[in-house]
Amino acid sequence: MTPESARKRSLVQVTLLSLSFAVLVAVSLASVYWLQKAREDNAWVAHTLEVQNQIALVQLQLRRAESAERGYVLTGQDDLIQQFNEAAPDVMPRLLQLRGFVADNDVQRPLIEQAIVSAQSRLERFGNVIALAKDNRAEEARELLRDDAGRRAMNELSDALGKMRAEENRLFSERTSEADRSQALATIITTTGSGLVLVLAGLSIFLVRRSARARDEAEIQLRDNNLNLEATVQERTADLREANEEIQRFAYIVSHDLRSPLVNIMGFTSELEELRSDIFRRIATLSREVAGKQSAANADSDGEPELEPADRQLSDDFTEALGFIKSSIGKMDRLISAILNLTREGRRQFQPVRIDTRELIENIASTVAHQAAEANAEIRIEPLPEIVSDRLALEQIFSNLIDNALKYLKDGVPGDIVIRGRQKLGFVIFEIADNGRGIDPKDHQRIFDLFRRAGTQDRPGQGIGLAHVRALVRRLGGTMSVSSALGEGSTFTITLPAKWTAKKSQEQRA
Amino acid sequence: MSNPVTIIMIEDDEGHARLIERNIRRSGVNNEIIPFTSGTAALNYLFGCDGTGIEHQHRALLVLLDLNLPDASGIDILRRIKENDHLKTTPVVVLTTTDDAHEIKRCYELGCNVYITKPVNYESFANAIRQLGLFFSVIQVPQPDAP
């Protein structure tokens, strides 16, 4: 999976999830809204029913009052008065209440006003009829009953109330349908919303599972790759190790085999030297014999025969040539010995032990004390951390570096060599700093190469020390570097693991 | 070495052989020196055609052995000499360029009598060989059983 597609996929996932969340929120809000709406609609329906109920009650009470009035006028029974008194006063409050109910309705308001007026006049008439009947003026009461005005008022009232009821009926059906619609809408929204959320959730789950699967696959591949990588690294390490050992063996054999012819060259050169004296003595004798024949006067001289000047020149040239050959052989022998020592050192097994570094360096300093005094140099050892490493290797490292520092001091300046150390993250860092002649930065790499030296070649040496030191430092799992400039002294920095274990090196060398 | 002790010199480098011989002679040793330039030839001579070494049971020998031979390892020759019933009493002087402590130890373990490293410096070399010659003139070699 390319990073591009991975990013796209995760973007899609995020979008989907936020989309589903948005849908969920929208659906919830819509549901709440529409449910609220439905409840309101239902309340309105209930309101309508209440209004209708009130209208019915008003009519009922009026009818009751009317029938009680008539009955009383006809029979004069007192319990009818009672009945009338129960019904009649109930009408007006109910109408007023009704007016409150329909106050928001423009259609109903004039109707209720009219109904109230009609009901008032009707109730007044009731009151009059009942009063007349009470005063035993039944005839007048009946007369009043028969009067059309009462019936008219009653009709008007009925008419108004009928209209109101019709209006309420209309409102009822309207509101019912509205409530139904709200409810249906709420249901639809809830269901579709839930469905949508379910679909989105399903999609998200699918995507998440797919990406999880992709991740698992990637993980497996990564693990495989790691294993492969490890195997490759191990293979390469083994190859390198083999190559390294091969080189060491090669160096050993070569240096060893080079020695045999060198013995011959040296041997026969020496034999030649012997021969040379024989030859030139013979030449001298012969030339003297020849000369003796010519002039017997010179024959009395004895001792070493003198050479003719030309022959002496020959003899000197001979000696010079032999001298060059011998010095070259000597040099070659030293180089070969150095290589042999290096390869031997490379094959030595290291033994990690706890080392008091300060004591170790003090020992080295005491062995070079004489040289230091001669060179007018001072070796200062600052507090040093302890280290677990190979003692001999450390001794060689430090004595080489201190030797170098003493060897390459600046003429006429008292030497000052400082050995510092500190611990950092499981490593110990040593610094060997001097105020000597320094090393040109372009030679910083070269000085670590075998048989390479830098600067004025006025000191004995094969160019082996630093190569050896670096090889040792590397074998101990460390690194080394130099910082220096011509005439400003040098500082060699060595970083070594604080706890070197043989196991690590065996793994490297196994 | 008053008695006729034969010095068997196994040295592949003829120059070395010449230098060794010359310096031994200079120290006044006049014994017969039989040089071999290959391990095989030396072994053939030492062990005879039947490979038992019985041919030399009545001779006093001294072996001067170089370790780096082209056809056989000197160590191998040393081992075979020291394992042979008729030759094991023969003194073996290992004279080689190797000064590897490991190698030296191994030679002595196998029964080498003297181990000398050839110095590259000719003066030391000549000196060493001459001293070896002097040494040869004083050491006692096991005398062969009377025939």
Secondary structure layout plus pairing:
The complex is a heterodimer of chains A (510) and B (147).
Chain A: H1 3-75, H2 78-101, H3 108-134, H4 138-146, H5 148-294, H6 309-347, E1 352-355, H7 357-367, H8 369-374, E2 377-381, E3 387-390, H9 391-407, E4 415-424, E5 427-433, H10 465-475, E6 479-484, E7 490-497, H11 502-509
Chain B: E1 5-10, H1 14-26, E2 33-36, H2 39-47, E3 60-65, H3 74-83, E4 92-96, H4 101-109, E5 114-117, H5 122-138
Parallel strand pairs in B: 1-2, 1-3, 3-4, 4-5
Helix pairs in contact in B: 1-5
Give a brief outline of the structure.
The complex is a heterodimer of chains A (510) and B (147). With 510 residues, chain A is α+β, with helices and mostly antiparallel strands. Chain A has eleven helices and seven strands.
- Mean pLDDT of chain B comes to 83
Q: What proportion of the residues of chain A form beta strands (DSSP E)? A: 5-15%
Helix percentage of chain B? 25-40%
Which second-level CATH architecture of chain B applies? 3-Layer(aba) Sandwich
Number of strands of chain B: 5
- The fraction of residues in strands of chain B falls at 15-25%
Structure classification of chain B: alpha/beta
